[in-house]
Specification:
Blueprint lengths: L1 H19 L4 E3 L2 E2 L7 H4 L12 H18 L2 H26 L13 H19 L2 H15 L56
Antiparallel strand pairs: 1-2
Helix pairs in contact: 1-3, 1-4, 1-5, 3-4, 4-5
Length: 205
């Protein structure tokens, strides 16, 4: 339970950082939402689309995956959201580097901006949150283990010989107030198998 809560907090924080990153500078003062999502596959241009046509759309999709993963306690969905954020960020860096021939970081605000750092940090937080979460499967295992550790209930009076669970003989099923019948204590040969006394007499001379 604690792991799910901690993982969910980390995942939601990562999703929030990823969604906010396109509204900050990504390179040379240009906001992340000003890069077309198609440019990540064809090459960076000077065109500046609206938010829903930019990389913001990919990060918004990752945030939706995160929320669904947290609600369902699905580590796979949260990890997939982290892969989407990091994948699109790395792909943008590759295209930006190809367009300019280099990627730089400078103290005067030129080069890579804080928006890229927010996207990378958000993706890492999503992956860490997915790793911390225990998920639904472990929770089911814990419930199953608790059921196995629960003692067997005692049988009712209708089935007195079914306890213990090994099916070994239990208490007597005798319900009468009279004593139980005992077997014949005689252990000798069966009287019915004795020979006829007349056949054992010696012949007369």
């Amino acid at each position: 339970m604690v792991r799910n809560v901690l993982g969910s907090v980390l995942a939601l924080a990562g999703a929030a950082a990823a969604v906010l990153s396109p509204f900050r500078d990504w390179y040379d003062g240009r906001l992340g939402r000003q890069y077309r999502i198609e440019e990540l596959f064809t090459g960076v241009t000077a065109a500046r689309p609206g938010p829903l046509g930019s990389v913001f759309l990919a990060f918004l999709f990752a945030a939706v995956l995160t929320v669904v993963g947290v609600v369902l306690r699905s580590r796979l969905l949260v990890a997939a959201a982290g892969v989407v954020v990091l994948g699109f960020t790395v792909l943008w860096m590759v295209r930006q580097g190809q367009a300019l021939g280099r990627l730089t970081v400078a103290s005067d605000g030129s080069g890579l901006g804080w928006g890229v750092a927010g996207a990378v940090g958000g993706g890492v937080l999503l992956l860490v949150g997915a790793a911390v979460m225990s998920g639904r499967r472990d929770r089911w295992r814990g419930r199953r283990r608790a059921d196995l550790d629960r003692p067997y209930p005692a049988p009712g009076s209708a089935h007195p010989d079914t306890w213990p669970p090994t099916q070994e003989p239990g208490p007597s099923v005798q319900t009468s107030t009279f004593p139980e019948p005992e077997p014949d204590p005689y252990t000798g040969p069966d009287p019915a198998a004795r020979p006829d006394p007349g056949t054992d007499r010696p012949p007369h001379g």
